[in-house]
Amino acid sequence: MKVTKFVLVLSMIAATGLSGVALAHQHNDDAKRQQRNSPHTQLHAMQRMLGALDLTDSQQAQIKQLMQQHRAQQKALPRDNALRQQLQQLVAADSFDEASARRLLQQQQQQQVEQRLTGLKLKHDILQLLSEEQRQQLAEKQQKWQQKRQQRHSS
């Protein structure tokens, strides 16, 4: 009798531990997916693809300068940490202030729009530096990257 209870307790402990691992794994997968879709990750992928092109010294210097300007612009944009804290305070408050929540969410969304816009401008400016042949090569590399990405996510 004692042995069966012991086995039962061990089984329950193992099942509980494994379910925690499964939940942690799912959370980790969600975080990785969100990170892969971030503008920063996409910009980094573009940098790697540009490195595979046969860029002139002048193009490399101009792209480097554009990247430095982009980093400075991104640093100058307000970060949403304060907004996130204010939203958390609204959630924790005794009563929910929907008007304030809407205002904060709109501010947060505007910040995200500005960040994405600077990234799009950077990509546009970089493409303007490339020759037609280099643009074609980059487009092919981006298409292959997208296909690999879709294959990874579908499996």
Describe the secondary-structure layout.
Elements: H1 2-36, H2 39-51, H3 57-76, H4 81-92, H5 98-129, H6 132-154
Question: What structural keywords apply?
Answer:
155 residues, mainly alpha, 6 helices
CA radius of gyration: 24 Å
Q: Give the number of DSSP strands.
A: 0
- Name the shape in a single word: flat
Question: What is the helix/strand order?
Answer: HHHHHH
Separation of the first and last Cα atoms: 46 Å
Low-confidence spans: none
Helix content: over 70%
Structural class computed from helices and strand pairing: mainly alpha
Overall average pLDDT: 80
Distinct helical segment count: 6
How would you sum up the major sheet? none
Beta-strand residue percentage: under 5%
Question: Could you characterize what this model shows?
Answer:
The longest helix has 35 residues, at 2-36. The chain is flat, with a radius of gyration of 24 Å. It has 155 residues and is an all-alpha fold. The protein is 87% helix and 0% strand.
Quick overview:
The chain has helices at 2-36, 39-51, 57-76, 81-92, 98-129, 132-154.
